[in-house]
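Notebook, student rotation project (T.W.).
Task set for the rotation: take a protein with a known small-molecule partner, predict the structure of the complex, and write up what can be learned from the model alone. Partner molecule chosen: magnesium ion. Sequence and SMILES entered below by T.W., checked by me.
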Amino acid sequence: MKHCGLFVTGTDTDVGKTAVAVAIVRQLVGAGIRVGVYKPVASGVVAGAVNDVDQLWEAADRPLSRERVCPQVFAAPIAPPRAARVAGSIVDERLLCDGFSPWRAASDVVVVEGAGGLFSPLGDTLLNVDLVADLGLPLVIVDAARLGAIGRTLATVQAARARGLSIAAVVLSHTQPLVGSLADPVSDAGIAHDSAGDLAARLAPLPVAVLAHGAALIEPQIDWLAIMEDRL
Ligand SMILES: [Mg+2]
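Predicted structure of the complex:
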């Protein structure tokens, strides 16, 4: 298989990117594919607590090494360049891109999870969107399906397209169990359901899918390999 991959980004921080990345990785691993996982920089990572780096590495069945998954890890739960400064350090911007190379060599598909939203800073000068452009990977845009999902998601999709980036799919990630019934448009469940339907209609033929809270599978299921091969 030719090299391909996906860059999982968000409309904002804390929208459920890691859960979506993990679901994609598990789906691909389940299909017998060698999946690499890369988080260019992570902040808010402290010993003993659940973090993105371990979750990605475990989902992919521990390829290469944990250090390769994320070569730049900082403890403070703030934007990476600020978190680096708190630690008396600086984000190595060249390494953000170079850290991807070992995965390219060792994997059929590499799933990258950005930090924060598409226009959030990764280093002193680079934003997530700049790294996406350098790596040339299609985007999976994640939003949390809270009230405002339509506006946040359309703004991110349009901004990505304005930068000439390719979008593989939009996934609404339920970061907590949804209260209420789908039939009640004012409930969390109704808002999430109606937002997904609205976005699917506005963005067609782009796939718009949902990852329910605690679910293993993104629904409807997306054929990631077919999408990536289309964009090579
Ligand atoms: Mg994450």
